[in-house]
Design goal:
This protein is mainly alpha-helical. The protein has 13 helices and 5 strands. It has 2 domains: about 210 residues, HUPs (Rossmann fold, 3-Layer(aba) Sandwich); about 80 residues, Tyrosyl-Transfer RNA Synthetase. The structure holds adenosine-5'-triphosphate (ATP) and magnesium ion.
Length: about 325
């Protein structure tokens, strides 16, 4: 079967190393062989905050980050929720396919509620995974390159597809998650590296910003650097980061650093990250906002055509 690849990000800030090793690297590889849809999930920004904030700037940032890492707009369809009303219309029938209890049990929704800045949990937060099912199914996506936090959401998408097919006849394939080299990269504070949690190294950070961020990362007092995820999670995370950027084993790096302590460790990490990101940063600096706008306008048009066809199929299958 020829897979259709769909994945997306919320325009809440610049993309970071967690995105790269969790999902972006796979997108770039998959676009060679499969149709790739990349969603800028703008409506989903207001799942965990009351107002969308600097949504236009963040949307441009995402576009520039995508192009900088090598997502090719000639192959990929890059689009945004707010430009595709038909995609959002799928949410309505899809909501009828899941129970309130099933939505309440979702561990990722629970985690996102815990980090939410909303005063009360909104209906949109609660139905987030079903909206995401619409994101994936509108283009009949089969392969979804995501980080580990998205696995419960993907289960909901599969549930929605299965139940729809059972009730109304087969329309949707069952999508599968595809995780990257690092399905859950931790941030500089030990929690999940996240755009909105102030603990990330952005792909577009400058070399000096990167050095300052790494300098501020938590470590421990033991001078001898060893790779021990259980007992020394902060040190292990920094070694993991350097290992990913250098394509090397973190245990070997630890042995090389030996009793160089946190100072040497942080120097190794900073150099590895800056070296790895140099070509990506260079490409980003050469792009203009006008490039980004053109890519988005074309992507929105293509995605909308796809959504119109799927919504029509859904209406016919349901007998409307
Ligand atoms: P926010 O804090 O605004 O939610 P985020 O950093 O969590 O931002 P998302 O836009 O929610 O980013 O996620 C986009 C994609 O990147 C998802 O597929 C998600 O699984 C993946 N991803 C996000 N953070 C990480 C991480 N630390 N490690 C691996 N994958 C990640
Ligand atoms: Mg997130």
């Amino acid at each position: 079967m020829n897979d259709v690849v769909l994945t997306g990000d919320r325009p809440t800030g610049r993309l970071h190393l967690g995105h790269y090793f969790g999902s972006l690297a796979n997108r770039v590889a998959l676009q060679e062989r499969h149709p790739l849809y990349v969603l800028i999930a703008d409506y989903q920004v207001i799942t965990d905050r009351d107002v969308p904030g600097e949504i236009r700037r963040h949307t441009t940032d995402l576009l520039l980050d995508y192009l900088a890492v090598g997502i090719d707009p000639a192959r990929a369809t890059i689009f945004q929720h707010s430009a595709i009303p038909e995609l959002n219309q799928l949410l309505l029938p899809f909501l009828s396919l899941v129970s309130v209890a099933e939505l309440g049990r979702n561990p990722t929704v629970k985690d996102e509620i815990a980090h939410s800045s909303q005063r009360a949990v909104s209906g949109l937060m609660f139905t987030y995974p079903v909206h995401q099912a619409a994101d994936i199914l509108f283009c009949k996506g089969t392969l979804v390159p995501v980080g580990k936090d998205q696995l419960p959401h993907l289960e909901v998408a599969r549930l929605v597809a299965r139940r729809f097919n059972e009730r109304y006849g087969v329309v949707f394939p069952l999508p599968e998650a595809m995780m990257g080299a690092q399905p859950l990269l931790k941030g500089l504070d030990g929690g999940k590296m996240s755009k909105s949690r102030g603990n990330a190294i952005a792909l577009s950070a400058t070399e000096d910003e990167t050095a300052a961020l790494v300098r501020g990362a938590r470590t421990d007092a033991d001078r001898l650097i060893t790779y021990d995820e259980e007992r020394r999670p902060e040190v292990a995370n920094l070694l993991t980061l350097a290992g990913l950027c250098l394509g090397r084993d973190p245990g070997e790096l630890a042995a090389e650093i030996g009793d160089g302590g946190a100072v040497t460790l942080k120097r190794v990490v900073t150099e590895a990250v800056n070296e790895f990101l140099r070509p990506i940063r260079k490409r980003r600096a050469e792009l203009t906002e006008a490039d980004a706008r053109t890519v988005l306008a074309e992507g929105n048009e293509r995605a909308r055509e796809r959504a119109v066809r799927t919504l029509e199929e859904v209406r016919v299958a349901m007998g409307f």
